[in-house]
Amino acid sequence: MKKSPEHTNIYVPTSLKELSMLNMQFPDALLFAGGTHIMRSSGTLPRYIISLNEIKDLLKIRRKENYLEIGSCVTLSRILSLGANVVPKALYTALSEGVPPSIRNLATIGGNICTASYTSNVLTPLVLFDAKIEIRGSSGIHWYPVLRFVQSNGKTILQAGEVVSIIRIPLEEWDVQSFLKLDVTLSPVPSILKCAAAVKISKTSINDLRMVFGGVEPIILRNRELEGILIGNKLPLQSKSIDFFCFELTKLIESKGSGFLPNPYHNRTAIRFARHFLSSLNNTNS
Amino acid sequence: MKINFILNGKETHIDSAPLKSLLTIIREDFGLTGTKYGCAHGECNSCLVFVNDMLVNSCLIPAFRLAGTRVTTIEGFSQSKEFQTIEKAFLKINIIGCGFCTPSLILATEALLSNKPHPTREEIIESLSSFFCLCSGYHQVVDAIQYITELRSKKKSEKKS
């Protein structure tokens, strides 16, 4: 069981204003959203806990023409309930196939981002879609790309007294999207792989290509130069173009050291994912 | 911390440490041992319960989140008609198991069928994918759930006619 101080004080604000006041009063308080990460942790929790689940502004979902705005305390099951036509496919797959239903009912999108854990299922697809997050604090409201927000495993740029309030996901027309998660459950050594890819095809050539990999440390790998290798290439892709892309990807993964994908099988699977995704483009009729 | 909630249809009051898990509360404070203590990390799915009709891992819910909620454990669900249909199907398909994860499998079955009355075999498999059951054999559970959908459809069509 979790160690907690003798007297834990729980605060349950119902508005962002109340939250802001509590944050100023207790800047080191632990922010509690879904709790799926916190309840698993074995360390001692701080004396002050602020529960975020009663703040209506953090539970809103807004669908605009070009993007989807999701409050940070929206559960993963509520996001899935928007449907596969609304939620970008790679994110939808990450949530529906990567997270068990009972966890989806508890875990929140904001919690998944803020824990910045290598186990997070939402980070890879959010980085794929260039999602941004809104941070509220005493210095005002700021927007950051998810990729910049997450520094390393367990670390973000979030300062004491700040809170992530909104996640904004651009809604673009992608012709092909894919997500894959490979986990070694209950492995004694942290080991996980997440791959996400999306492509836009204009007539017969690649207009845009993105590919993001999730590992242990760094938890996210995205390289614009690598993505740019195939942009502008005509379909069907030649096998030597795919080989070159995979060669460069291998070099990039190796440059991150064994901390990124400690399991060699995950390493090989990342390359296989890239090869399979790129080869599958030759079968699209866009 | 004083907390009021509804447990298996009855109004309940407890005085608990705010971070004590719902799993510990229902097993140790109320003696409802149908909910099993497995990994306590939300991995094994042995501790599933309904909170406000949503299937959740009771090991991941702290006491302070219980205020005003409606909790249903396997003991409470076993009083329902839906339980009888599921029980009938599990017996009919002859699911052999140690019983450790059966209560959670039953609740997961109900959660799936209440959201999707006619799931495909793939959807059933996906809904059970996070269970660690070493003895029942997943195929039998999938068969049982498919049998329940048939039973429920049959009952509906009988009512209509």
Kindly describe this structure.
Chain A has three domains: 9-51; 56-170, Uridine Diphospho-n-acetylenolpyruvylglucosamine Reductase, domain 3; 176-283, Enolase-like, domain 1. In chain A, 29% of the residues lie in helices and 26% in strands. Chain A has ten helices and 14 strands. Chain A has helices spanning 16-25, 76-80, 89-98, 101-104, 109-114, 123-128, 146-149, 224-228, 239-255, 264-280, and strands at residues 9-11, 30-32, 48-51, 61-63, 67-71, 132-137, 140-145, 150-152, 155-156, 163-170, 176-183, 192-202, 205-214, 220-222. In chain A, strand 13 (205-214) and strand 14 form a beta hairpin. Chain A is globular, with a radius of gyration of 20 Å. Chain B is an alpha+beta fold. Chain B folds into two domains: 2-76, Roll (Ubiquitin-like (UB roll)); 81-160, DNA polymerase, domain 1. Chain B has six helices and five strands. Chain B has helices at 22-29, 74-77, 81-92, 102-115, 121-127, 138-160; strands spanning 2-7, 10-15, 48-51, 54-57, 70-72. In chain B, strands 2-1-5-3-4 form a five-stranded mixed beta sheet. In chain B, helix 3 (81-92) crosses helix 6 (138-160). Chain B starts with a strand and ends with a helix. The model of chain B has no long low-confidence stretch (mean pLDDT 92). Chain A binds chain B through residues 1-2, 4, 8, 10, 12, 32, 35-36, 39-40, 45, 49, 51, 53, 77, 96-97, 100-103, 105-106, 185-186, and chain B through 1, 17-21, 24, 39-43, 45, 48, 54-57, 59-62, 64-65, 108, 111-112, 126-127, 129-130.
Total individual domains of chain A: 3
- Largest binding interface between chains: A-B, 26 and 31 residues
Structural class of chain A: alpha+beta
Instruction: State the order of secondary-structure elements of chain B, H for helix, E for strand.
Output: EEHEEEHHHHH
How far do the termini of chain B sit from each other?
54 Å
Helix/strand structural class of chain B = alpha+beta
What characteristic shape of chain B results from the CA principal axes? Answer: globular
**CATH architecture field of the largest domain in chain A:** 2-Layer Sandwich
State the total count of DSSP E strands of chain B: 5
Relative helix content of chain B = 40-55%
Helix content of chain A: 25-40%
**How large, in whole angstroms, is the Cα Rg of chain A?**
20 Å
Number of contiguous helices of chain B: 6
Determine the number of helices of chain A (DSSP H or I, runs of at least 4 residues): 10
How many strand units of chain A? 14
CATH architecture of the largest domain in chain B: Orthogonal Bundle
The poorly predicted ranges of chain A are none
